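ERR on first pass: missing label on line 2. Operator R.T. fixed the label and resubmitted. Corrected input:
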Amino acid sequence: MLVFDQVDYHYRRGHPVLRQLSFEIHQGKFISIIGGNGSGKSTLAKLMNGLLQPREGQVKLDHLNTLKHEDLGRIRELVGLVFQNPDDQFITTSVLDEVVFGLENLRVPRDEMAHRVNEALKAVHMEDYVEAMPHQLSGGQKQRVAFAAVVAMDPSILIVDEATSMLDPQGRRDILDVMHALHRQGMTIIHITHHMEEILSSDRVLLLSNGEMAFDGTPSALFSNVSIAEHQLALPFAVRLHQALGLNAPLCADWKETITSLWSMS
Amino acid sequence: MTDNIIWGQYINSGSIVHRLDPRTKLLSVLAFTLCCLILKTFGGYVAATVLVGGQLLLSRVPVRKFFRGIKPILLILTFTFVYHLLVTQEGIESGVFVVWRILLLVSLASVLTLTTKPLDLAKGLEQLFKPLSNWGVPVEALALMLMIAIRFIPTITQELDRIILAQKARGYDIKSAKGHRQVFAYLLLVVPLLITTIQRAEQLAMTIDARAYGNGKGRTSYRVLRFSRIDYVAGGLILAFILLILYL
Amino acid sequence: MVYELNDVSVRINGEEILQSVSCTLKEGKWISIIGQAGAGKSTFAKVIKGLIPFFKGEYTHNQQPLPRDSKGNMKVVPQIGYVFQFPEHQIFETTVYKELTFAPKVKGESPERLEEAIMMVMGQMGLSGDLLQENPFQLSGGLKRLIAIASVLIAEPELLILDEPTAGLDPISRTALLKQLKAWQGEKNRTVLFISHQLEDVAEYSDEVMIFKKGRLLVHLDVNELFLKHIAFMEQAGLPLPEPIQLLRLIEAISGRILEPASCREEDIMQLVRSVWQSRGLQNDG
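pass 2 clean. output:
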């Protein structure tokens, strides 16, 4: 379980980025984090695996604490992080080496590496590109390699920070499929996004506004309770559709199913 | 601009030169460079040329690719040649030899980079210098640094191309700037490049940390370099050849 | 003004990355350019601006060939504005004022004319005049983006190229930016080339759409024609349909009726779907 306890963060004194954040995330959940540009989402992600440490309060993962230096190594093994720009998170010069890099850091024995590399690349459908170099890959492919590099390290929590925002529609769909497949295997997924369509299928949504938690609950509760526009968000298509047709049915990510079943019920 | 960069332009033809241990290649390039510096006789030059030419042939690197790689050097060579022609006593002769020597060194270096993956080069250097880590030299970290440099040269050149285009699109052609405006023109390039590169570096450092690098436990290594029989043979042959060159 | 390409091909490192493209860009149109990554969208835009040479074909402006330099290469077309991806990365001046006036100063505009242009462009982008003396590097990402775009608009381009101008922006900023750009385009009857992966935005704001696939121009047609009549092109290019269009298809399939909304914009589709939805009970009874 990941616990935020009264966490404050600022880069410059007097300019708080996050204020008094307290929440818990249970294993195996799919969580979406949303909020406008500059609301503190990325900072939150970096606090989760100890890339940043809280100025006040604590971030704990089970018995580990990001404030304890000796815990950091273990925390980073358990909490994987994929960032926005595929080019800036390709450290090495080939797909194989990229996936191997994290394993070497975890001191995985050499004989075990080949197997784990293979599994991770299969999970993102990049097994045919083992020897490819970064400049031979598209943005979407590079991003999938970044996922494989993290997945190979076998984290229990995967944080995805706007990893779909620079991709074409196909690339975006591929990444979302990978995330849902990993979630089905029991991984906790924390997805930071601007795309409202992507949050409907999550278990829980955290909405950040000016560094404070403006909402914490299910997607359908979010869209029925909070005045969204105020927090720099837009309504996803499914919600607009529900409003336009005056539907009372529960909100569901797959609006096509809702429409089809309601039509035949009349 | 970008396509003349030979770094990271590794082409795999599976030749015997490709299969050599990077350390063998690094050490022989080093020995050959030293040898070139003391090269005096015409016979020596011819023998050295045979050595470099032989390696080039053995490596089966496409000739076009090879020449494209060394093209940027040609300007420097012409300049050097003209300089020797006009300034030094021996004129033509000294010019020819200097240009010849540079060509030999550049060609061998190209063979090295065309037949060895940048990462293997970094690995080779890392293992060669491993003993220094006993003296507190952070060999592993330096090797990572080297690898990142190799990895990002093409990315940063692309970035530079993009900035040049963007300035051009705003009506400012860097190439047409003259006199003191040239300094300004370069500032226009360097400032955005520096800023994006620093942002990139920050992001990359974060990625490296997030992938649990340097957690104090040391690392294992997937690519382990081992000298094989061809390395001993090739090493011996190159050494013999270098001795021959020095003797001529 | 009309820009015309006739059978233009671009080759880089021996590879034809744009093949035999012919098209006419007419005045006053918002033309969206879509296609998968690597389909040639940005290359096409760069050819239009005169930033990269083509080895085959012709490029004319109002039936006149565009000027070339002494070596026969295309010159940059000054009356076209180009907003690159993440344009805020190109900012280099120390105040917003200097950044905005960079291009006009290169062109040698008079100071009076400059003041006027600055006030106008700041108003158009919804920026406050207080920002002018600020250091752009200290502003938020969203503001930097607006300033970078304003610094292109200030030159009053007759054709504006936007390469994914909303990438990385949150939904509210994204909609606000697109509405401002659309207003600018409509007011001045300018042409916009809009490269985007956001197909919902394409359906919402465009007059025409160009679809690229593997370096070729697959088709160039009216936005309503594309999304209401010829959606097969989208599939051919490996692109999904915008959600409102998917809704329209679904309702057609389950109702067995052919629906003809006034346009492919979400508002019109929703209106039609609502009326079909409300009448579905009656229809079933009858």
